[in-house]
Structures are given as C-alpha cells and as structure tokens.
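Tokens in:
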C-alpha cells in the first residue's frame, strides 16, 4: 500500500493524538526525579558515568532539534498537522529527558554538553530511512531516529556504574521504544498494514524490523 495515500485517506488529528498517547503513558510512569544529588561510588565510576550521560544528552539535543527542524518542513495539510501533533508529543518527552540528564551530570560535578545549532541526519536519508521531502517521509525519519535512540540506551545503560542512573537510563530507553511504537501505531491507524511492535526486542540485530524505508 502507498504510504502517502494511506495517510491522505484516513488522516485525522484525533487518530495521531491517540497513537501519541502511547508515548505519553510511558512518560507518565516515567523518569525518576533526580533533582537530589547523585553520588558515584568512585572517581573512576563518576568519569565513566559522566561520559555516558553526556553522550545520551548529545542525542537528546539532536532529537529535539530534529523535531523542530522537521516541523518547519511539514505541510499544512491534514497529514502534516497529524505528523506535527505526534512530533510535538515526542519532542516534549525528549525535553524532559534532556533536563533529567543535565541535572544528573551537574549532580556528579560535570558540565552538560551544549546543544548544537544543527545536526547531520544525512546518513538516514542516504539509507532511505526517511527524508524531509514529504510528511510521510518525515515520520519515517523520526521513526529511525527513535529506534536508534532506544537501541543506544539499551547498550549504554549497561555501562553505567551508579544504580540510580541505571534506573533513569532504563526509563528513558523504554520511552524511546514507546516513541517508535507510537509512530508505527500512527501508520497502522491510518491504514498501513504493519505490526505496531514488530519484534520482541529493540536491538541492533532486529533494527530493520522497526524502521520503514522510503
């Protein structure tokens, strides 16, 4: 089935907001509050955790930028408005992730990495995992980014040394997976024949099952 036709045929703002609620539910159960001081067990552990946290913060900045950048490319059609509604829902979660990570880094005595003016997503476009040339392809690009975020958190959380931070990282990672599922649910609700959760795991090994090609 042609994705653009499917979106055009069945798109509505309400449908996407319902799909986006998947991400909202994950957030609501969500991030442990870490405003209090986080103590690493040793200087080596602290440096280890700071490096991982700042790496995660870099990609949260990238996600926030990507949604803002894509929003400027969306049309004002029903399809564009639908994709925008879900994008804003997901971006709001990324902003909370950013703030939580920055707080944890500061708590450990580190300096949170700053957001850059722009980020390079050309590798995704070259692989055909989305684009900015249509509303549907923008949604696919967001899906690829969210899938990679979920995979990255799964891999990096295991390297953290501070128990509280492991909990925070796992919570963020689960929300990134929910974002990917929410985007796939939007395609599903608009008539595309696919599984919302296509595999039992979100991993590098089954990444291709999650992303959608242009």
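Residues out:
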């Amino acid at each position: 089935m042609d994705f653009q036709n499917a979106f055009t045929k069945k798109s509505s703002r309400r449908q996407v907001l319902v799909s986006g609620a998947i991400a909202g539910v994950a957030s609501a159960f969500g991030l442990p509050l870490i405003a209090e001081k986080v103590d690493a067990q040793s200087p080596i552990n602290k440096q280890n955790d700071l490096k991982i946290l700042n790496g995660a913060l870099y990609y949260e900045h990238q996600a926030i930028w990507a949604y803002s950048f894509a929003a400027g490319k969306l049309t004002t059609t029903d399809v564009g408005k639908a994709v925008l509604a879900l994008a804003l829902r997901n971006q709001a979660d990324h902003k909370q992730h950013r703030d939580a990570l920055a707080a944890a880094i500061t708590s450990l005595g580190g300096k949170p990495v700053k957001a850059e003016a722009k980020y390079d997503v050309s590798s995704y476009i070259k692989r055909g995992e989305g684009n900015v040339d249509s509303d549907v392809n923008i949604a696919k690009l967001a899906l690829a980014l969210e899938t990679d975020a979920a995979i990255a958190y799964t891999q990096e959380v295991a390297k953290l040394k501070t128990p509280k931070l492991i909990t925070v990282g796992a919570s963020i990672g689960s929300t990134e997976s929910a974002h990917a599922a929410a985007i796939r649910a939007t395609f599903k609700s608009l008539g595309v024949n696919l599984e919302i959760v296509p595999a039992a795991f979100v991993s590098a090994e089954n990444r291709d099952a999650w992303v959608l090609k242009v």
